[in-house]
Amino acid sequence: MSAASLQDARVRLAGRLVLDQVSLCLEPGELVALLGPNGSGKSTTIKAALGLLPLEAGEARLGDVPLRALGPRERGRRASYLPQTRRAVWSIEARDLVALGRFAYGSAPYERLSPADRAAVDEALERCDAADLARRGVDTLSGGEQARVHLARALAAGAPALLADEPAAALDPRHQYEAMALLRAEADSGRGVLVALHDLHAARRWADRVVVLDAGRIAAQGAPGEALDAGVLAQVFGVREGEGGFVPD
């Protein structure tokens, strides 16, 4: 049984077709990198898979259940989401923001959480190198510190599927590495992890499989070494591999 899937998904926004006939299946225990140039449909794919955007055609499932049959709490038990744009609407402590990851289990401010929920929050903060930020107001944190706290929120959910949109954005090199290592560990523990990335090197290093989008359609998919061949690099990304890395083709 897959952790999450899309079948022949089509999404139209403001009258424009932005996703067309996209099918993908996220299996437990794998990390899939969703790649593509700006505007190719990566964020749209993740949102469609979570029911955050309506499908004009096709179907989204979490586990073996159609998304339309699941209420908000059941969706929260099956999938966690790290959006590309992360902002806290209220000035709350970081640990209370992470506690929102336990929404599906009856989330409350940290002080009123059950012992099990509190342990999940504490562990997620520790794993994201954010334990020392727990009592800080989110609005006092730097962009990178906020990114680590939001990643902790997604991890605290403990859902079978984790969908993350640019999880390393705003992070310094050390924390970029640690964020990807955490997501790799989540996949190795049995969760299905779908990660939208721009970093092709990171995709090759961490992903079991890549899905390449171009203009809202799947251009290639498979093992990183196969899907990111010279033709795809040139046609989709406009780059080639040079001596110092990827360079304009």
Automatic annotation (TrEMBL):
Question: Which PROSITE patterns does the record associate with it?
Answer: ABC_TRANSPORTER_2
What this chain does, per the record? Part of the ABC transporter complex HmuTUV involved in hemin import. Responsible for energy coupling to the transport system.
GO MF: ATP binding; ATP hydrolysis activity
Q: Which organism is it from?
A: Marinicauda algicola
Record domain ABC transporter: where: 4-240
Listed PANTHER family: HEMIN IMPORT ATP-BINDING PROTEIN HMUV
What phylogenetic lineage does the species belong to?
Answer: Bacteria, Pseudomonadati, Pseudomonadota, Alphaproteobacteria, Maricaulales
Q: Does the keyword Transport apply?
A: yes
Entry superkingdom: Bacteria
Query: What is the protein's given name?
Result: ABC transporter ATP-binding protein
- Kindly give the SMART domains that the UniProt entry links to this protein: AAA
Specify whether Metal-binding is a keyword of the entry.
no
Which keywords are on file for this protein?
Answer: ATP-binding, Nucleotide-binding, Translocase, Transport
